[in-house]
Amino acid sequence: MNKNIYYKSTRGGETGILASEAVLKGIASDGGLFVPNEIPKIDVELSKLASMDYKELAYYILSKFLSDFTEEELKYCIEKAYDNKFDTEEIAPISKVGNALFLELYHGPTLAFKDMALSILPYLMTTSAKKQNLDKEIVILTATSGDTGKAALEGFTGVPGTKIIVFFPEDGVSEIQKKQMITHEGDNVFVVGIEGNFDDAQSGVKKIFRDNEFLKLLEENNYIFSSANSINIGRLVPQIVYYFSAYLKIYIKGEIEEGEKVNVVVPTGNFGNILAAYYAKQMGLPINKLVCASNDNKVLYDFINTGVYDRQRKFVTTISPSMDILISSNLERLLYTISGEDSDKIKELMNSLDKDGSYEINETMREKLRDFYGGFASDNDTKKFIKYVYEKYNYLIDTHTSVAYSVNKKYREVFNDNTKSIIVSTASPYKFTYSVMNSLDNKYMDSNDFELVKEMSWLIDKKEPKAIKNIEKRRIVHKTICKADEMKLKVREFLEI
Ligand SMILES: *Cc1c(COP(=O)(O)O)cnc(C)c1O
Fold this sequence. Notes:
Elements (H helix, E strand, L loop, with lengths): L6 E3 L9 H7 L8 E3 L9 H4 L4 H12 L5 H11 L12 E4 L2 E5 L9 H5 L2 H11 L5 E7 L3 H10 L5 E8 L5 H8 L6 E7 L2 H12 L2 H9 L2 E4 L6 H20 L9 E6 L4 H12 L3 E8 L4 H8 L1 E3 L20 H8 L4 H14 L1 E3 L2 H5 L4 E5 L2 H15 L5 H17 L5 E5 L7 H8 L8 H12 L20 E3 L3 H9 L2
Parallel strand pairs: 4-14, 5-6, 5-8, 6-7, 7-15, 9-10, 9-14, 10-13
Antiparallel strand pairs: 1-2, 3-4, 11-12
Bound molecules: pyridoxal-5'-phosphate.
């Protein structure tokens, strides 16, 4: 029998919130993030879970966190999410390449790991709305560094009772990512390019969420905002599932003994994916180190190594754009845990981040960061390891995954740690064809992303995924571009309020 889990804000302003309320609200009214009042523990031996398929495992994990959902409700959401929009029944397969175990999270409809959670979030959200007797239309407002946008559009298009608005940095995403979004058809969708970077888009969205007058106006028009960003627990919780699935898969393959610890290596931006791994560890999954891999926007590397989080630095545009982030929102949840759930402390740190652009944590908190190792990879390293892995193992990885591979290699060398590592592959190389192909050989320099899709499919002898087939020929349906301070205006125009 599962315990009842309630949610509360990291900033102390809300407690006793049901999972369905937290999913609907996205963010707490005091600006904090919802966290469970306790992390449920696995209550059977791991080997007992090994015979479950992905959906059964998803039910096992989700039912522990979303305890006010009935079995029927959860199973409905899971069935709808993990179906044949994934190109493999395994949903999240593992590829063994040399000594590395790549957890491929890119077999969903948009070729990036965001599909793992965004394929289920719309169903969790509409189910929550029913449970809460909500009669308003849900407006999903999302800022994206490239992959969330398309995955959220895929998830919410045509879902009755919802509208979705996506803001993306006009010059901060790959050609293919951009094309995926601006050609996305649907009556309830609206896509807008921002003249600015991802942080500008994300800050803009957060500001709208805190604009009480605007929220009132929405309510009068029978709308309610929610967030599809990774701060929503409806995204965080489904991400825990694949860490269990990965562990059990390599256990079944005989790569590890039952209970043997593994490292997980996660290419990190908003800290959502790696936080799910941290929660998995707290539930009892045998994880040793959580290796947090950054690109040249290495705020997290600096934070883990010095205890100082400082976003006041130059924003760098890299070849792993989905990690070009200086404000990692989900880190607030980790801070909450390592501060001993001290919401006053969190308020103080977040105020300092808002006002001064930085904060520093104390020694006690730093002690508890030891679960993590922080490293980073430059664009050059990233390219180097795409080429290395391809030439040595005939396996093609994308730029984000290469950041993880590179950081892990360094970590193992420096610390002489031979623990098996699961490297989280967050995107298909097909999503970043220009950077990937030019890492192999700079003869592709004058080609574009679209031309290189064919080249790539010849190279790896696999058909191009249908998600991007003929993408360059699709009709552009979203042409709106605005400044960061015009976002609210664009929302009003779309909603006609
Ligand atoms: C979103 C994303 C990341 C970063 O994940 P976070 O949960 O934001 O840390 C890494 N790689 C890819 C391809 C992504 O789309």
